[in-house]
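During data preparation, a discrete fold description was generated, as reproduced here:
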Amino acid sequence: TLAWFATELGQRGARVATVPYQFDRYVAQCRLMADAAEVEALPLYYEAVGRVHSSRLHVAELAINANLPGNSIAPQLDEVGAHARLSGAEAVILATTGVGGRLVALNRAPVLGSGFPTVLVPGSVLPRLRQAAVHLALDARLESSASATVIGHFGKGDAVPPVVLATPLSGWFRCAGERGTGIAITLQLAQELAERWPVMVVGTTGHELHYLGLRRFLAAHALHPCAVIFLGAGLATTLEPESGSTAPLFRQGRTTAGAGLAKRLEEVLAPVRFPVRSNPAQWSGEGEEWVRLRTPLLALASRFPLFHTPQDLPEYVTSPSQLEVTHAAVKRAAQLFLEEQKSAPRR
């Protein structure tokens, strides 16, 4: 993915660099059997390392409704783990319910958790797991690894502070909507904005690991952009409700611009239903990190029905027409923001 993104930037005329960083990668092999049939399963990353081959398993539910992937689930894990230990279980099987019976991955900080092996499974298999003979084979470890942030510079020289156009490059499973739509629009928008402003594209990895790549990059580089536009998750995905899902769906735009400009940005983004809030008390996603630069910021992100699931595939979550409409709206919003943010009141 890093090589592909760097190539795409270069083919569009950017000067490309990669900024590597080291981290401990979680590597696991997992197989869960129920009455001799294999069940889709995903280890809860970083929760535990070591080997488990056991049928002494504690099966529980993790409702994905108010508990958005990425938010802390520590209290629920502590409670489930305590029950599991008291029962004599050697691992926990957590069924993710509330999302149409699908398996939902959870963002994690890249440090060891409780040490108690925990595996995620689709909510649809919960009744079967409670009746079946279940066996888990899990082998998990940490290993030294590396990733990188990809930088692309458009425009001449470095004398003028650039517009930073940022998007994450990594996601769960195929992440076609979660990441692919934002990446596609970023590549196109970078070329278009560069016709008027110098542009610095920042493609980060490790978003699922507490924004690991972006945090490492910002800690090592003193950036002084004229503005930041962050294109986050699910930029051009459907928001149509799906049968059986109780997970909250939303689109959000947040900005450091004043209320007047925020309202105008919302009007421009109306075709893709992004409400825009001015100077919110809390920022979500990697906007939490970018806002610390204390420079004008516009951040867009979405949560959609197949977010963080294996079914986040192009044919299910987006379309050429959805990408076209979203790109057009985001381009107009970015241009408006860059033209007028200097005179707009900011906190």
The mean pLDDT is 91.
